[in-house]
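Lab channel / #folding
Pinned by the channel admin:
"Please post every new chain as: sequence first, then the structure tokens as a reply. Keep commentary short and put observations after the output so the thread stays searchable."

First post following the new format, from NK:
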Amino acid sequence: DLIDLCQDEAGKLGFEECSCFQSNHEGDLVDEIQHAYGIYDGIICNPGAYTHTSIALLDALKAVQIPCVEVHISKVEEREAFRQISYAGQVCFHTITGQGIAGYRMAIEVLKEKLGH
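Reply from TO:
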């Protein structure tokens, strides 16, 4: 459902392509971010628990310098204190939290506005 939502919204907003990737492995996520360099105009990222732990994701996002929106299905700002730190969010130009999977639709809209498409 989430992939369909993202691809439908991206198509409605005029994006030529919407590629989705999910992994539970930090290195695979870093590889995918690095792979995006020179191919994609923007990234929407839900780092999950890596939000609070992964300097590797932060470094990868910094390295590619692709505009990125951070999305969290829950309101992480209302959860445990350790969840208040977002490494990936430090390089993202916008963060959306607590909107469920609709947050991804919002992220695509924000990315479109940022890119001027």
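NK: The mean pLDDT is 95.
TO: also worth noting, The first helix runs from residue 2 to 12.
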